[in-house]
Amino acid sequence: EAMSQPIQIGKLTIRNRVLSTAHAEVYATDGGMTTDRYVKYYEEKAKGGIGLAICGGSSSVAIDSPQGWWKSVNLATDRIIPHFQNLADAMHKHGAKIMIQITHMGRRSRWDGDHWPTLMSPSGIREPVHRATCKTIEPEEIWRVIGNYASAAARAKAGGLDGVELSA
């Protein structure tokens, strides 16, 4: 019975306690934009009665944290805003809320992305899976990445999403 009860998160009221956690949908474009299939995937969840969906597992906040093989969403550009508006409208018309998980992949990112970023991490220790080398993050880069998170959250809000989940 508790699952069907509304819940308040800050100022946001969610119609029930049924949610879909962030995961790799693999429906974004190569450039990280949502597609009709992406929107329909979440809209079906809303039609089914879900209260909240958190989309875009590990969606990128910065150009130096490029999209993964799972075709994550790119929040490093304003081009995502109208895509979010379509997604938010599809969810809201069925009474559901929508958020997105945002992250900077750090050393877990791809070194061979479109912009050939230098991977960075707090320690400078290489990534254990793909073994790419990385550098120790500098203090000014920490502030830049914090700003990237803020910009990504602002884009999500401008697109009508109900919130963000930070993965750091």
TrEMBL record:
Coiled coil: none annotated. The keyword Oxidoreductase applies. Gene3D superfamilies: Aldolase class I. One of its GO terms (molecular function) is oxidoreductase activity. The keyword Flavoprotein applies. Keywords: Flavoprotein, Oxidoreductase. Residues 5-166 form the NADH:flavin oxidoreductase/NADH oxidase N-terminal domain. It comes from the Bacteria. Transmembrane segments: none annotated. PANTHER family: BINDING OXIDOREDUCTASE, PUTATIVE (AFU_ORTHOLOGUE AFUA_2G08260)-RELATED (PTHR43656:SF2). This is NADH:flavin oxidoreductase/NADH oxidase family protein. It comes from Pseudomonas amygdali pv. mori str. 301020.
